[in-house]
Specification:
The complex is a heterodimer.
Chain A lengths: L2 E5 L2 H8 L9 E4 L6 H5 L8 E5 L2 E8 L13 H9 L3 E6 L2 E4 L5 E4 L3 H13 L3 E5 L16 H12 L7 H20 L10 E5 L16 H5 L2 E6 L11 H12 L12 E6 L4 H6 L6 H5 L6 E4 L2 E3 L3
Parallel strand pairs in A: 1-2, 4-5, 5-8, 10-11, 11-12
Antiparallel strand pairs in A: 1-3, 3-4, 6-7, 9-10, 12-13
Helix pairs in contact in A: 3-4, 3-8, 4-6, 4-8
Chain B lengths: L6 H14 L3 E5 L31 E5 L2 E7 L5 H11 L3 H12 L7 E8 L11 E5 L4 E2 L8
The chains are: A alpha/beta, B alpha/beta.
């Protein structure tokens, strides 16, 4: 077997190669310099930190971050994980479940467990695991940096390679068990994680029929047939931009709307509203390949703007 | 070595070079991606309470004996890196002291601070006299600044 590690940042490729003796001879290649179609498919929604190929087959897509996903950046990286799942590739998120935030108001900060719950749903819908591996911290919640923090991840990757990428190995099961326990603990700490956040409400679909901004919108039958919708209000005050909203929409989609792997399989509509962005602001961005412009119409059933709506795909 | 290096490659090579020279890497953050070192944010307490506005991060911080080496890593020389380290070591020195004390328990008053750059491309005359510069071809500009002890 030969391995190739595609990377966004070289130091992460070196770190990843060091996780397993099986990868010691792996070739390192920048993600941006490849036109391999299966790799390009894995970059549709965003660029992950690492993609591992075994011979010609993509085996895993990995996100590594020392940030605790809370508040604003919870869903930011979720699009990359969804893309891997849609392509049938194992997704791994390696980051802290708990870490200390520093500064004037230093405090311990736990992961928003909505992300973990959405990752488990991804597994259910796409039949390939999306695993969150905890970057360990010490008793004072300072992140560990001595190499032991990635021991569990290293063990997982070793065992996956040895097993021929069998997802039924105990290491995968243990990580999903850890994720379930963290979700339970997270909801105990903060009951709000058990339901949608303040920015996303479940509302009656019929309300949209009366919205003056949608007076010219031809509501499809599938939309009106769903009695409930998830209404996600995006706080985008400084003009059109992508992060974290392009990822967060998918987080809420999987948590509160999806019943299957495609966006047509929903029990609730996904409706996004950007109340601070006008139709003319939206239309002023003519590059439809720009990440924000492309992804913000790819998933919602309706995208409502300040004074109208944008066509979704 | 690759002819055209990107910044993350220079970063990794710099870590290897400094370690080889006997420096102990204690903190840092590359401009893209994560790292195996603690990230030190040099905050400005007079700025907003939340977020990183007004704060600085040094790419690499290392120690050797009682020397503290601050290193900014780039492919090409950029005068803004010089300005940044000058600010950190002068008007923001107290903030640097607080950040290193809080995160690493390190008192910079006990150290001699050395400012440095690590680059692939630089003309030696661009490097200020009070800066060390590690060049990826293997040379060091102003190496005498590293032997104060």
């Amino acid at each position: 077997m030969s391995y190739t590690i595609y990377y966004d940042a070289y130091q992460e490729a070196e770190w990843f190669r060091g996780l397993s003796p099986h990868l010691s001879g792996a070739k390192l290649k920048p993600i941006n310099e490849s036109i391999e179609p299966s790799l390009v498919s894995l970059l549709r929604y965003d660029k992950p930190d690492i993609i591992l190929y075994e011979d010609q087959t993509p085996r895993l897509s990995l996100e590594k971050t020392s940030e605790v996903p809370t508040g604003h950046n919870v869903g930011q990286r979720f699009g990359r994980i969804v893309c891997a799942a849609e392509e049938g590739v194992l997704g791994i998120y390696f980051g802290p479940f708990l870490a200390k935030k520093h500064g004037k108001y230093a405090s311990k900060c736990w992961i928003n467990v909505r992300q973990l719950e959405a990752m488990l749903k991804l597994h259910g819908f796409h039949n390939v695991p999306s695993l969150a591996v905890n970057w360990q911290c010490d008793a004072d919640a300072e992140l560990i940096h001595n190499g032991s923090e990635s021991a569990k991840l290293a063990e997982l990757i070793n065992e996956l390679i040895k097993s021929g990428w069998n997802y039924d190995i105990p290491e995968v099961q243990q990580i999903e068990k850890d994720m379930c326990e963290e979700i339970t603990e997270g909801i105990k700490r903060h009951a709000g994680y058990g339901s949608p956040p303040n920015s996303a409400k479940i509302i009656k679909t019929e309300i949209y029929l009366l919205d003056p901004r949608l007076k010219d919108y031809k509501f499809p039958e599938f939309f009106t047939n769903r009695s409930e919708s998830l209404h996600y209000v995006v706080g985008m005050k400084a003009g059109l931009r992508s992060d974290p909203f392009t990822g967060t929409q998918l987080l809420y989609d999987y948590l509160y709307c999806r019943t299957g792997p495609t966006k047509t399989e929903r029990s609730r509509n996904l409706v996004m509203e950007i109340p601070d962005l006008s139709l003319s602001d939206w239309n002023a961005v003519t590059n439809t390949e720009r990440k924000d412009k492309r992804l913000l119409v790819m998933f919602p059933d309706i995208l409502i703007l300040k004074d109208g709506y944008a066509k979704t795909s | 070595m690759q002819r055209h290096l990107n910044e993350s490659f220079v970063y990794v090579e710099t870590k290897k070079l400094l370690t080889g020279l006997g420096w102990v890497l204690v903190a840092g953050e590359p401009s893209g991606g994560s790292n195996n070192l603690p990230r030190i944010e040099i905050r400005n307490p007079s700025m907003s309470d939340k977020g990183s506005k007004g704060s600085y991060k040094v790419d690499l911080i290392s120690t050797k004996n009682k020397n503290l080496l601050l290193t900014e890593v780039k492919v090409d020389f950029d005068v803004s890196d010089v300005e940044k380290l000058n600010i950190i070591c002068n008007e923001r020195r107290e903030h640097l002291k607080n950040a290193l004390q809080e995160r690493l328990g390190l008192d910079i008053d006990e150290y001699y601070i050395i400012k440095s750059l690590s680059l692939q491309n630089v003309h030696s005359e661009q490097v200020p006299l009070d800066f060390v510069c590690f060049v990826m071809e293997g040379s060091i500009i102003h190496p005498e600044l590293l032997s104060k002890d």
